UniProtKB/TrEMBL annotation:
GO terms for molecular function: ATP binding; sequence-specific DNA binding. This is Sigma-54-dependent Fis family transcriptional regulator. One of its GO terms (biological process) is regulation of DNA-templated transcription. It comes from Thauera phenolivorans. The lineage of its organism: Bacteria, Pseudomonadati, Pseudomonadota, Betaproteobacteria, Rhodocyclales. It comes from the Bacteria. The keyword Transcription applies. SUPFAM superfamilies: CheY-like, Homeodomain-like, P-loop containing nucleoside triphosphate hydrolases. CDD domains: AAA. Pfam families: AAA_lid_14, HTH_8, Sigma54_activat, VpsR. Residues 140-368 form the Sigma-54 factor interaction domain. Keywords: ATP-binding, Nucleotide-binding, Transcription, Transcription regulation.
Length: 441
């Protein structure tokens, strides 16, 4: 296995010598002291790996950094000299450009695994031709394996015009995904009408969906267009579809079959051209078995199905999500500048029963109430989680490593030698990782 080149951007000039002293086999480091020098070094060959050292005393120009990170022929790793709290000072759009992160004191085995993973990813991106950008994230935040799989599915869904059923726990972002499908589909110029089926009285839900004619009932002084008709040429998003009354399920099924509606109190059949995206946090298959949901409607809605991962299933996305929410919720003039390392550990240790919605709520509350420069676990209401052992960073790393190894093993049909070459590690190292992570071959 030949040498792999790594360009190390070390403005302070202190880290390069430390890394060279680690004597990592198969890796050749080219140390530069500026972003401009890194651009020049990286233009000489590809694919390559870039490591950027972040030193508080020597901040890097944001515009130059953004231009450098935009290179699609390079995988980027970040090294923080003063712990992970330094990441809070970087904009989330820049954090999303890094494949992995490490902080001092630097661990030889951890660095070798990081480099191997980045190299393996480069090989996957380059194996079928010229370098290509990582798949679009459709306005969402996250580069974990579950989220990348979700983006790939969305890319297929936006190309067709079939109904979609989105499953996932409360707060996991089902409406966000529905809006992304609308925004990137052929119906982007049409309306997006959202309706919570569980938030409307059963006596009103029919008129909300189908509308009504003037005089249809007491108080109907003029015609009202229902949500189905209002969404024509666009998307109707029905949240908590499992709460839709059975009699309304029959009516919705007829709309999906006939593409027509009749307003309450009317006789005219109105043609509608609408894509229905439904969402639920309940098991609709069980609801069918229990007689609470129509099986034929489930089949009609579930032409394309999506299952959103819970936040606890993509822990590695929490730093990116937290930083984006911090920037969105932080008011002008706030004294808070970021997250302490203890706060970030607490965020990654929490089980998140309320998912992304709970994460945003905790961060927003902490920003309003905190008097600290860096948010603490207590500010986030997660003091107990902060003291939990072991540190969640190890669990996060294990999760990332397990996912990458299992994916590579599947691609290589469980050939350990081929998988090791793809990941950029030796067979012995890979066997050791397989044993440590309890991966079944």
């Amino acid at each position: 296995m030949g040498e792999r080149k790594v360009v190390l951007v070390d403005p302070g000039g202190r880290i390069g010598a430390d890394l060279l002293a680690l004597e990592l086999p198969r890796w050749r480091f080219q140390v530069v002291d500026s972003l401009a020098a890194a651009q020049k070094a990286l233009s000489q060959a590809m694919p390559q790996i870039g490591l950027i050292v972040f030193d508080r005393k020597r901040p890097l120009p944001t515009d130059e950094l953004e231009a450098l990170l935009a290179r699609h022929d390079t995988e980027w790793l970040a090294l923080f000299e003063e712990g992970f709290e330094a990441a809070a000072r970087l904009p989330s759009r820049l954090l999303r450009s890094f494949h992995d992160f490490h902080s001092s004191p630097f661990d030889r085995d951890r660095l070798e695994v990081m480099l191997g993973h980045a190299w393996g990813k480069l090989q996957l991106l380059h194996q079928n031709g010229p370098p290509v950008a990582i798949e679009a994230s459709y306005g969402m935040v996250g580069q974990s394996a579950p989220m990348r799989q979700l983006y790939r599915k969305i890319a297929k869904i936006v190309a067709v015009d079939a109904p979609v059923l989105i499953g996932g726990e409360s707060g996991s972002g089902k409406e966000l995904v529905a809006r992304a499908i609308h925004r990137y589909s052929g119906r982007a110029d049409g309306p997006f009408i959202a309706m919570n089926c569980g938030g409307i009285s059963p006596s009103l839900i029919h008129s909300e969906l189908f509308g009504y004619e003037r005089g249809a009932f007491t108080g109907a002084s003029q015609r009202k267009v229902g949500n189905i008709e209002a969404a024509s040429c666009g998307v109707l998003f029905l949240d908590e579809i499992g709460d839709l009354p059975l009699e309304m399920q029959s009516s919705l099924l007829r709309v999906l079959q006939d593409r027509t509606i009749t307003r309450v109190g009317g006789t005219e059949r109105v043609q509608v051209d609408v894509r229905v995206i439904a969402a639920t946090h309940v098991d609709l298959v069980r609801a069918v078995a229990e007689g609470r949901f129509r099986e034929d409607l489930l089949y009609r809605l579930n032409v394309v199905g999506l299952k959103l991962p819970a936040l606890r299933e993509r822990v590695e996305d929490i730093p990116l999500l937290a930083q984006q929410m911090f920037e969105e919720c932080r008011s002008k003039g706030s004294p808070v500048r970021g997250f302490s390392s203890a706060a970030m550990s607490a965020l990654m240790a929490h089980s998140w029963p309320g998912n992304v919605r709970e994460l945003r709520n905790r961060i927003h509350h902490a920003l309003v109430m905190s008097d600290h420069r860096l948010l603490t676990p207590e500010d986030l209401g997660l003091a107990e989680a902060a003291s939990a052992e072991p540190p969640t960073l190890e669990a996060l790393r294990a999760s990332v490593e397990r996912e990458l190894i299992e994916t590579s093993l599947k691609k290589c049909r469980n050939n350990v030698s081929a998988t090791a070459r793809q990941l950029g590690v030796s067979r012995v190292t890979l066997y050791r990782m397989i044993d440590r992570l309890k991966i079944v071959l």
